[in-house]
Design brief:
Length: 223
């Protein structure tokens, strides 16, 4: 099996060292960048997030066609899922993060999920990397009939989360926040979640989770 990571890392290192293109001159250079691809049967989608300190904004992936050509070449090796390429100008490092098909929804960017996707990508840069708005956010407990949850960040409301039968969720010790995989609770009133270090995405009862106040286009633009 061919490992796609070395080629993507080389691509990322080239992006970090190449001079700005004419249309990029005069723009604020980013400290860190996350390029995200979702590889699914019949299609490939991409989005990017650039970081300036702890500020973030959505951005186009530089030379995205070249990267997609690379990914097409490795499609059989990657399978279906998500690929996140993190570029760290501060550390001078490029890294590739592969996510299986069941965790693909946590990287789907919409108006509602974009802040959570940006925060999730920022955490990939290393221990202690977190955007500053979690503690002050307004967390609302999930409802049993709630939908459009996939990709949102959930806050655990209990110290020992479990599924509908009371089986422990097997999350890493100290986990406070998770990414929600399912769009809505199952018939067993659970949702699958992901957290760094998780091998198999566990189910957690919906009433053990809370999400932030839903974002709107107006709130994101400050209007």
């Amino acid at each position: 099996m061919i490992d796609p990571r070395p080629a993507l890392i080389e691509f990322g290192e080239e992006l970090m060292t190449r001079p700005p293109r004419p249309w990029e001159r005069g723009t604020e250079p980013w400290d860190r960048f996350a390029a995200i691809w979702q590889v699914q049967p019949g299609r490939m989608s991409s989005n990017g997030v650039e970081f300036h300190g702890t500020r973030w904004q959505g951005a186009a992936i530089p030379a995205v066609r070249d990267a997609e050509d690379l990914l097409e070449g490795f499609r059989r090796e990657i399978g279906w899922g998500a690929v996140v390429l993190t570029l760290d100008q501060v550390a001078g490092a490029a890294r590739v993060h592969l996510f299986g098909g069941d965790t693909d929804p946590i990287w789907e960017k919409t108006v509602a999920t974009e802040p959570d996707v940006a925060e999730r990508a920022f955490e990939l840069f290393g221990t202690g990397m977190a955007l500053p708005d979690r503690a002050s956010a307004n967390w609302i407990p999930l409802r049993a009939d709630q939908s459009e949850l996939a990709g949102l960040t959930g806050k655990l409301l209990v110290p020992d989360p479990a599924d509908d039968d009371g089986r422990p969720a097997q999350l890493p010790p100290g986990t406070q926040y998770v990414a929600i995989i399912d769009d809505e609770p199952t018939v067993n009133l659970t949702v699958r979640v992901w957290a760094p270090g998780v091998v198999s995405s566990p189910f957690v009862r919906y009433d053990q989770l809370a999400c932030r106040t839903p974002q709107t286009i107006e709130s994101l633009l400050g209007t």
